[in-house]
Design a protein that fits this description.
It holds the Pfam family APH. This protein is 37% helix and 20% strand. The protein is of the alpha+beta class and 230 residues long. A hairpin with a 2-residue loop joins strand 9 and strand 10 (199-203). The protein starts with a helix and ends in a 9-residue tail after the last helix.
Amino acid sequence: MGLSIGILFPLRLRLWLGKLLFRPLGPSTVRVSWHRLIKGPCDPPEVEAMQYVASHTTIPVPRIYAVHTQENGCIYIEMAYVQGGNLHSAWSGLSTDQRDTIFADIKQHMSSLRELLPPTQGIVSSALQNPAYDCRIGARFYGPMNHDEFHSLARGHLCMEDVALFLGEEVAKVHTARYQTRFTHADLAPRNIIVRGGRVAVIIDWAFAGWYPEYWEFTKAHYNYFPSQD
């Protein structure tokens, strides 16, 4: 009964009550019941990615119950709250066997993600071939575009003739090589991997996900901290 009444409350009231009754989950995420949370404002690529991955793989993604679009266009995603702790916080308390099992889970889930077939090779876009977003590139949406256009955007449209001189030979090699297109989470940090009972319970925060050159997952992983004491 309480859950049904809660759903009937206006979104702003539910968010206010959630902040009052539950501990904060993050700057944009509010738990609104024992089994649900609301995240927002969000961008369309996050909704697209979560729905696409849920319908095309067995990767554990939070179940979406509703997408609330406000009059100003802001999107709030109402999704399942999954019990557990993030891998960053849980790491020191895990046994060696648990760590091995979690790594095996991550490897399996990433393999499933990379086995997804792109709509077109060489594309950079959201899951549904709409504009994508990644803070690594900038504050604006971009695409759909091809890999060459993406690389030009990533280097600030610096001419290829000048890339080696100003950015180095390695960047020049990366921006002239040919790549397969793979579906990419693009923020696979330990804070976004929720574990419970020594297994991966859910993978969260799909805001930057979409179709990218095959190396982008690896590149973005280097922008995130991972415990390195072991």
